Amino acid sequence: MIVFKTLIRFMLVASLGVTMAHAQGKIGYVDMNTLINSSPQILDANRTITAEFEEQNNKIAQQASDLKLLEDSISKEGNFMTPDKLAELQERARILDRQVRRAKEDLKDAITIRNSQLVDEVQNQIKTVVARYAEDNGYDAILINAILYANDDIDITDEILQQLRSDYSSGQ
């Protein structure tokens, strides 16, 4: 029985030693918010979204401008119009207002969906770059934002951002 207890203690101490040896592995930290906000891939994605939705945005802006002119006309000249003409213009203004609001909402939804797609693509690129960097530099783990404290010595955000910039400029 004593031999059995001693053997169990030895195994616990040995496994604790192995665990502690692993705990001293090389760990890095990456601030994903910085990478997402500063990577050229995200900046390019933002330009893509702007270009993709520019025509729709301009159309909505024109409709909003038309609505403003119509509302100004009703406001300034409404007292001098016949009741039928005033009612007609007010109805047109209500319809145009609904169209503008609906178009803005639809555009916002479309932009959100497209932005999500592009951000997912960039996040996958970032994950690939981080994994490659970790393997090339002997890291056992790379942590992201959900940490309370990280020593500046383990923050590799700038190195990863530099690699993303390099990959972007080389067309990867």
Automatic annotation (TrEMBL):
Keywords: Coiled coil, Signal
Superkingdom to which the source organism belongs: Bacteria
Key word Metal-binding present: no
Leader sequence residues: 1-23
InterPro entries membership: Chaperone_Skp, Skp_dom_sf
Coiled-coil annotated residue ranges, if any: 53-106
Similarity comment text for this entry: Belongs to the Skp family.
Name of this protein: OmpH family outer membrane protein
Organism per entry: Marinicella sediminis
